Amino acid sequence: MQESAYWNVIERLPRAELEELKLRRLRAIIRYAYYNSPFYHKRFKEASVTPDDVRSFKDFEKIPVFRKDDIRAERDKTGDPFAGLLCMPLEDVLLINPSTGTTGIPTFVTYAETELKICAEMMCRHFWMTDARPGDKALTIQLNWHWLGPPSVTAYRRFGMHLMIDFVHPITAERYVWLAGFKPDFMFMDQPLLMAIRDEIREHTGKEPHELYGGVRNLVCGGESFPPKFKEHLMQEFGITGGVYDLYGCSESHIVAVECPEHNGNHFWEDMFHVEILDPDSGDVIPPDSGESGEVVVTSLFARDMPFIRYGTEDVAYLETERCGCGRTHARLVPRDRISWRIKVGGKEIYPIDVRRVIEEFPETVEGAFTIRKYAHEMTKLKIDMRHEPWVRPEDEEALASSICERIREKLGVEAEIRWVSFSGLPVIFHKIERVLDETKM
Ligand SMILES: [Zn+2]
């Protein structure tokens, strides 16, 4: 029998049917949240919206957007650790995870039994899309007990992959030499963590990562958006034979969006999520397929434990709904950066990913290890602290810096200044480089 190209036929549902299904589920979750969550009940009332007022996607825009700080504020005000978002008795919740805490004090993420199964289904579709197959050996490495851990474990089992899952901190070279003996076909992890593992292996074993992990077919990596040249670089460094796929995720809403083999954005499943893109300044909804980016606002259509309705993720992306070359009809998010990393230079708005796309053109800086120093709200030039590859000679640093600045001027139309630093000279949180160091707040 010929193998299907999809895990679930719903991945190819015609868009008109998908939109209809989405609207039906959207109206149901609004009604459910209004009557079961004190948080939403209060916010809907304040905005003078009732579930009956929402009959179209346009009506849905009347519902106020909320963000992580609103959860924290409500939690502080009411003393409820779930901020009034939990819609079922605690005994019906299987697991409670704190969010990653990248942006401050963590909030809680819950999984009830049905929600865990739905999240696992979402991941099975992603696994199949990134060319994993039943019987593959999968290695997942996550920092401690990450929110993707519980659905991953359920998904691997359902999918039929053999899983080695490692929740680890700190990173030691011996551990990754030993784990390589498992000879995985498929790896799933955080990009900054992968870089830290690579550095550790190099420094303490004298080996290159491909000597240990060569033969891995596919790698799915989250944590930060992926420029294309860096992807090729990773494939060579780790000896990956198939492909590297970018993953975008947001813990609170449980949304996960992953690239397909077309590598033209990250598919998320619209039978499970409704996503809007909002202009960060006006708050207006930006229509999909306009190529314009804005804040990713997510509504989970399935979560009855802790629904997230118009949740502003503070991440920036644009949305594509045109049919993808892979045949899937579900939309794609093209992730960019965090809103808090938006800077103004020479009258232009720039995100670190724009800089990264320029500097990865140079083999000496393909890895994109840099931080922008924000020294004023409106800057006249970019000040960048950057690390280059270890093989660059000190006498070549100046010429390299001026070539990169020239390219930044051509591509982004702004002046730049580069200061070479070692990796430890860059600000890092949980192995992730802080892309913008806000010196105006120091
Ligand atoms: Zn696709």
Task: Supply the key terms.
3 domains; Rossmann fold; 31% helix; 442 residues; four-stranded mixed beta sheet; binds zinc ion; single chain; GMP Synthetase, Chain A, domain 3; 23 strands; globular; alpha/beta; twelve-stranded mixed beta sheet
Biggest sheet record: 12 strands, mixed
Distance between the termini: 63 Å
Strand order of the largest sheet: 4-3-5-6-7-8-9-14-13-12-10-11
Subunit organisation of the chains: single chain
- Tell me the total number of β-strands: 23
* CATH architecture assignment of the largest domain: 3-Layer(aba) Sandwich
Shape assignment: globular
Share in helix: 25-40%
CATH topology of the largest domain: Rossmann fold
Give me the Rg, rounded: 22 Å
Bound molecules: zinc ion
Q: Enumerate the spans where pLDDT stays under 50 for 5 or more consecutive residues.
A: none
Mean pLDDT: 92
For the record, the CATH class of the largest domain is Alpha Beta
Strand fraction band?
25-35%
* Total number of distinct structural domains: 3
SS content category: alpha/beta
Helical region count?
Answer: 12
- CATH superfamily caption of the largest domain: ANL, N-terminal domain
What does this structure look like?
A hairpin with a 2-residue loop joins strand 21 and strand 22 (432-433). This protein starts with 14 loop residues before the first helix and ends with a strand. It contains twelve helices and 23 strands. The model has no long low-confidence stretch (mean pLDDT 92). With 442 residues, the protein is α/β, with parallel strands linked by helices. The strands form five sheets. Strands 4-3-5-6-7-8-9-14-13-12-10-11 form a twelve-stranded mixed beta sheet. A four-stranded mixed beta sheet has the order 20-19-17-23. The protein folds into three domains: 9-116 and 252-339, ANL, N-terminal domain (Rossmann fold), CATH 3.40.50; 130-250, 3-Layer(aba) Sandwich (Rossmann fold); 342-441, GMP Synthetase, Chain A, domain 3 (2-Layer Sandwich), CATH 3.30.300.30. Bound molecules: zinc ion. Residues 260, 262, 267, 324, 326, 328 line the site of zinc ion.
